[in-house]
Design a protein that fits this description.
Elements: E1 2-9, E2 17-20, E3 25-29, H1 36-48, E4 68-75, E5 81-89, E6 92-97, E7 100-102, H2 106-109, E8 114-117, H3 123-126, H4 129-141, H5 145-167, H6 173-198, H7 202-210, E9 217-221, H8 230-239, H9 241-247, E10 258-263, E11 266-267, H10 268-271, H11 274-296, E12 301-305, H12 313-323, E13 328-333, E14 348-354, E15 357-361
């Protein structure tokens, strides 16, 4: 699976154009603010149907415009040639897959599974628990549509239960408790299994790349720890109805789960330096790609945005070695960076990005 050609109109600062990206490795070279990350955002949009930077689609529309359009020709996981178009017109987002309008985003995300490496990924290590929950949810949803369905159902029931809590609709409590327990328990089990698998990958990756003597461990702390059946969870929710009323929300559930990263010194986010935390976030994304390969036998598309800038030559080499196989990778670099060898072979293409214009380099 890979992108073959990408086009865009009225998207951020990018000039309206169509670009040949039918290469295993695509290098986007340029100074900051020229449009390299915007290009990766286009690709992410086409993989997931949304942006990794904003939920407000007006923000990605070029200044002075009211709409935008992005699209691509690509080969999907079955190596079939496809076309996807995403457009935003009059405040409405529309996705077309091979000319057919897509109503459900799940029809988009399984065509080109991608792993996105971003400078903001440090929040996966030191940010609020929600960032790590979202990381695990994305890791599982990339290949498991049943998990995605359970997550959607859980969020819908949670919203209904929260409304019932606020208005004291106790007659609905039992129904909502049972539904929340059903979907939540399945999500909890999947998260627990995913954490176990990632714990066999992430610590070794960190040890091989960082070589700083720290032994990292991922730990899953479910909100419903020790509750191993739908009946027990539903009963627990019922017992806490009055507490939930005082807090105006459901105070337990998978939306309160925590994922902890610690080492021999305790919480890693408290003892690690900023450089170590940033490196760990980069390695966690690498582990996400390895997790996807392990679960599916497929190689994802990689979007790697300037994250190697702070790595010394040894760690950069170790990172690229640990990165593993990919079906396609897009790298962004500054002009004066020495990106890895292989940039001149036939499987690679380099574009110089200047003011949103992509100029092919020989």
């Amino acid at each position: 699976m890979k992108f073959d050609r990408v086009w865009f109109r009225n998207f951020r600062n990018l000039k309206d154009q169509s670009i040949d990206v039918s290469y295993k490795q695509v290098f986007l070279i340029g100074e900051n603010g020229q449009g390299k990350t915007n290009m990766l955002e286009v690709l992410y949009f086409l993989c997931y149907g949304n942006s990794f930077r904003t939920r407000n689609l007006r923000e990605v529309t070029r200044h002075g415009s009211d709409d935008f359009l992005i699209g691509a020709e690509f080969h999907d996981v079955h190596e079939d040639s496809r076309e996807i178009i995403l457009k935003y017109v009059e405040g409405k987002k529309t996705v077309l897959l091979d000319g057919r309008e897509i109503k459900d985003r799940r029809e988009v995300i399984y065509n080109i599974p991608c792993v996105n490496f971003s400078y903001d990924d440090i929040d996966l290590i030191r940010g609020e628990p929600e960032f790590r929950r979202n990381f695990f949810d994305q890791s599982l949803s990339m290949y498991d549509p049943l998990y995605l369905d359970d997550l959607r159902h859980y969020k819908a029931v949670l919203k209904q239960r929260n409304a019932a809590v606020k208005t004291n609709m106790k007659q609905m409590m039992e129904t909502y408790n049972l539904l929340l327990a059903r979907y939540g328990l399945r999500i909890q089990k999947a998260r627990n299994e995913a954490c176990s698998v990632l714990n066999m990958i992430f610590p070794d990756f960190y040890k091989n790349i960082a070589e700083d003597g720290r032994n990292l461990t991922l730990s899953y702390r479910p909100s419903w720890d020790g509750l191993d059946s739908e009946e027990k969870i539903a009963e627990y929710l019922g017992e806490n109805w009055e507490r939930d009323q005082r807090m105006f929300s459901t105070t337990s559930g998978i939306h309160r789960d925590r994922f902890i990263i610690y080492d021999q010194n305790g919480l890693f986010q408290n003892s690690g330096s900023t450089g170590q935390l940033r490196l760990a976030s980069l390695i966690l994304r690498t582990a996400q790609a390895a997790f996807f390969r392990r679960q599916t036998g497929m190689n994802p598309v990689m979007l790697i945005d300037d994250v190697m800038l702070e790595l010394d030559s040894r760690r950069r080499g170790a990172f690229l070695e640990q990165l593993g196989s990919y079906s396609q990778a897009f790298f962004t670099f500054l002009l004066d960076e020495k990106y890895f060898s292989g940039d001149s072979d036939e499987s690679s293409k380099c574009y110089h990005v200047i003011n949103g214009q992509f100029e092919a380099q020989r």
